[in-house]
């Protein structure tokens, strides 16, 4: 048996573009993806902090250091430019792995550049704070 747990998260990124006439997905600065441990084409859940929408899509790696967060296709209707979103990826782990699993969390500034990288403890508190 496996259970699904949070693997990596980009917290409160600002949507920089919304391209309705595109095949689908979310384009994310590849530096943010790599730091959060999220792979290109990986399924992600996105939560729009401004309007409460939750939806799933997959990632496309954007130019590193660009700060791009672009919702493509139908996802472009779920959030607007300037909205803050949380991008989350999950992993299936065994109950034994879950005992020591610590998700990676990337906090960004208003330009979607990395401000802090951390992990969650079991109780949900942050630790291993790495300020960049």
How would you portray this structure in words?
The chain has 132 residues and is mainly beta. The chain is built from 2 helices and 10 strands, in the order E-E-E-H-E-E-E-E-H-E-E-E. The protein has a 10-stranded mixed sheet. The chain starts with a strand and ends with a strand. The relative contact order is 0.29.
Topology:
Blueprint: E1 3-14, E2 17-19, E3 25-29, H1 30-36, E4 43-48, E5 54-62, E6 69-72, E7 84-93, H2 95-98, E8 104-108, E9 114-120, E10 126-131
How do the SSEs run, as a string of H and E? Answer: EEEHEEEEHEEE
Rg, Å, rounded: 14 Å
> Structural class, from secondary structure content?
mainly beta
Strand content: over 45%
Stretches where pLDDT is under 50 for at least 5 consecutive residues are: none
Give the total of domains: 1
The CATH topology annotation reads as Barwin-like endoglucanases
**Helical residue percent band:** under 10%
CATH class (first level) name: Mainly Beta
Number of strands: 10
**Biggest sheet: strand arrangement:** 2-6-3-5-4-7-1-8-9-10
> What's the CATH architecture name?
Beta Barrel
How large is the count of helical segments?
2
